[in-house]
Amino acid sequence: MILAAEFSRSANARLADFSTSSLERGYFNLREQDRSSLGRLDEAPSELSVQRSRQKRVRGALIAQFAANESQLFADAVELIRPHVDGVDLNCGCPQGWAYKEEIGCWLLRHPDIVADIVRAAKNRVETSFPISIKIRVDNDLKMTEQLIQTAIHAGVSHITVHGRTRHQASTQPVSLSSIAFAVSAANNAVPIVANGDA
């Protein structure tokens, strides 16, 4: 997670926080499937869909993740890093105390309008096809999670990664699959939801 305010204001911060080259992006084999024969993620693929699978070589994507609470600073950071990455993610899930005091990370979970402003500002600064995503944790009050997801979707977020723990849960505790399922339902197929939190 890179702090957007420092990244956008300081060349030294940009040099210290981010460097990459095209050689760092690996290539891997992606198995394509006939999507028409696929069921839900928790269902085994049919024999027919496996037979229709084929592989293609694809380049890995590089996504930069920023922490921010000010839309213009986030948009500035996105504009600066845009030529070097395939997408940018807003961290709304860092549970660390220092981040919460700085009003970034998990602090944003209960401030959906700020998240929406940040997403909109970034989408207005770069081409609309450029992915702007958010990573969140679930809130103890799932209605807050639902409001955040729906507000972010309305603002134009490309996808949402859901870490299936609350701000106060340690990573030693298992993720809440039911909370992740709730987030998927709240998105109502408007954007992809990526589950996160356990190996």
Automatic annotation (TrEMBL):
Catalysed transformations (reactions): a 5,6-dihydrouridine in mRNA + NADP(+) = a uridine in mRNA + NADPH + H(+); a 5,6-dihydrouridine in mRNA + NAD(+) = a uridine in mRNA + NADH + H(+)
Superkingdom field: Eukaryota
Cofactor(s) required for function per UniProt: FMN
Entry's Gene Ontology molecular function annotations: flavin adenine dinucleotide binding; tRNA dihydrouridine synthase activity
InterPro entries attached to this UniProt entry: Aldolase_TIM, DUS-like_FMN-bd, tRNA_hU_synthase_CS
Keyword hit for Oxidoreductase: yes
Gene Ontology biological-process entries: mRNA processing
Keywords annotated in UniProt: Flavoprotein, FMN, mRNA processing, Oxidoreductase, tRNA processing
Domain DUS-like FMN-binding as annotated: residue spans: 56-198
Matching PANTHER family: TRNA-DIHYDROURIDINE SYNTHASE, TRNA-DIHYDROURIDINE(20A_20B) SYNTHASE [NAD(P)+]-LIKE
The name this protein goes by in its record: DUS-like FMN-binding domain-containing protein
Natural source organism: Phellinidium pouzarii
